[in-house]
Amino acid sequence: MSTNKVQKQDVLQAVVVANFFHKNFWPAADGDSACLLPLVNRPLLHYTLDMLESSGILDVIVFCSSGSADRIKASVQRASGARRLNVVYTTSDTCRSFGDVLRHLDACALIRNDFVLLWGNVVGRLPLLPLVKRFKTLRQSGDKGAVMTIVYQRSSDPNTTSAADQTVVLAADTGRVLFHNRARGKINLPLELVLDNRTVDIRRDLVDTNVVICSTAVPPLFADNFDFQTKDDFVKGLLINEEILNSTLYAHVVDGDGYAGEVFDWPSYERVTRDVLHRWTYPQVPEVVDKYSLRYGNVYFGDNIKLALTCDVGNDTVVGSDSKFGSDTRISNTVVGKNCTIGNNVVIENSYLFNGVNVKDKSVIRFSVIGENCTIKENSNISDSCILGNGVVVEPNTELKQKRLLSSDSNNKSKKLSAKAFVYDAENNSDSDDDEDVRGLTFRTRSWSINSGSSSDNDDTASVAASIPDDTCMFYSEVVDSLIRGFEDHVHCDNLILEINSSRYAYNINYREANFQVIRAMLTLNSKAELEALNQVRYYTQLQSKLDYFMPVLRNYIKSSDSCEDCLSAIEDIAKGEELLNTVIVKVIHHLYNMNILSEESILRWHEKEEDTQFAKNIREKANKLIEWLKDAEEETDSDEDDSS
Q: Could you give the CA distance from residue 223 to residue 519 in angstroms, rounded to a whole number?
């Protein structure tokens, strides 16, 4: 009995997070079931389970939302690599972040021993058992405070976004993580890193695989620290409070002893697809995991396909089983799903077609994603990062560039193109989290679009953030996203404060800069189109309602003389570029004074501050009546006190 108990305790577990908490693949897939997105005609989650099974890890816990649980369970049952696995599912509809998942696991007490933690979008082959054994040995005989080993992949090109965006400093002899920062350009390293360690490795060539080896102390650490919302929050928190939390981090760099690629957006999807076709992920390649035949030039043909004699199939191409191609059709650098029908004189390049797609004659598809069971009718041209959701029907002679299409308008926020084609209108939709990069299938978050100067769904946000340093820009953009979602979905302000603090923590933003950027974000929640439709009265009414809603957030950040100064500086800064705010700036300041956000002393001090620019002088001149009223009120208060004495 006791022997069985010990053996059960020693079973190595893996936790697979199958809910991604983002919409990077929308409308091709949503965040709840994006782990089932096909990569080379196979669900992402199947690659992850295969990697665990080949590593000898058989006890797997899969976290997913209850809405996607049935689909994920059905998919796992069909996965060839899952047949030997003991899969346990745990679901929750209250988890909104990676940190919430770890807190959920802690509450459920599902973790019995050291475990492997990864997302359901990891593709590759890793020797996980030796890594876990090394981690156990480290904790038993070396560093008992070790709680996590982070697995990195060395990038062949350090200039890629995922590698260039982070700096990791490691102790050369032990691999202990001493410093971690996600920022481009120059960084400041603490002198203690060199003084306290004989040799350190400064790495800017590492890509995070999102595979980590954890001790049982990790879930309780998340449970005790609610500002840990992401893995980066956890890493930064432990490095800053290492002595308090008595916890240390280590790193393992995959370099020649394996491959791991995380698919978290379209650029990484494209990169990992290329690696699969070029066989870096062997044995996870098409002809091993499915019924494909390999041809020269990394061309993979499925069973029972029909190609016309004049059909030209170029390099780096996959054709799924039971697919048909017409005459004079050209296809290259493309993955075509199963049961697809491609007509005559069709050109498809650098694209991804999922199962059941029907492309009619003389159509062109370049650098786009076509969802399951879509129909592209005659003479259509789809190019430059178009993404079509499942079941879309594109009518003949249609030309699309940089569009996202859905088969129905369930949220009444899309423009109708045809009966089963609705164009997602990002300009008039504040829920948009993504922006498009016109080169290929590169979809980036709004913060990166701001930095690159590309168009955004909120032009005012872009103009405000254009000159802000990278980390500050990313923090500002995340605050804008949180506030927009919070106002529209009526999220409790306490939760918004947690999100903002988490972002501040992740990007190492000091307190005064956070005050400044939070106020700027509150004043730039309207899109350009929304502003054009407003007059002065309606604008101020809407702005006042938002300020009143976010009053707990304001009180959390604006509570000292310095923070009042930051608030007034932010208001003035935004008013320079926003005419409507410029016309009501005195009303805004007066309202914040009435709500006890701004103190009388801070307003008077701001007004008396000498400024060189004409704009600043004009703003202060507008505020003269408010200043006179404040001074009169102060004098009346003083006289009342004298009379009473």
A: 30
Count CB atoms within 10 A of the CB of residue 174. Answer: 16
Phi and psi for 383 in degrees, rounded to 5?
-155, 175
Which of 404, 424, 444 lies at the terminal end of a domain, its last residue?
424
How far apart CA 24 and CA 31 sit, in angstroms, is 8
Same domain, 114 and 203: yes
Are the C-beta atoms of 263 and 270 separated by less than 8 Å? Answer: no
What gap in Å lies between CA 443 and CA 267, rounded to an integer? 7
Whether 243 and 321 map to the same domain: the answer is no
Q: Tens digits of per-residue pLDDT, 408-452?
A: 887 677 788 888 989 876 554 544 444 443 333 544 333 322 233
Q: Do 89 and 143 fall within a single domain?
A: yes
Omega prior to 219 cis, within 30 of 0 = no
Instruction: Give the chain's domain count.
Output: 3
Query: CA 195, 200, 206, 212 torsion: positive or negative?
Result: negative
- Tell me the mean pLDDT in the region 70-95: 86
Question: Does 274 map to a domain?
Answer: no
Q: Are residues 582 and 509 in the same domain?
A: yes
Are 376 and 394 spatial neighbours (Cβ–Cβ below 8 Å)?
Answer: yes
**Residues 6+ positions from 439 with CB-CB distance below 8 Å:** none
Does residue 29 sit in the same domain as residue 174?
yes
Does residue 302 share a domain with residue 158? no
Q: How far apart are CA 97 and CA 84, in angstroms?
A: 30
Domain annotation covers residue 85: yes
Count of CA atoms in the C-beta half-sphere (13 A) of 35: 30
Residue 219 has pLDDT above 80, yes or no: yes
* Same structural domain, 340 and 478: no
**Same-domain check for residues 257 and 391:** no
pLDDT at 330 over 70: yes
What is the DSSP code string of 308-331? -TT-EE-SSEEE-TT-EE-TT-EE
DSSP letters, 172-223, are TTT-BEEEEE--SS--PPPTHHHHS-S-EEEESSEEEEEEEEE-TTHHHHHH
Distance of CA 168 to the CA centre of its chain: 20
Cis omega (within 30 of 0) on the bond before 27? yes
Tokens representing residue 221 in the block: 């650490």
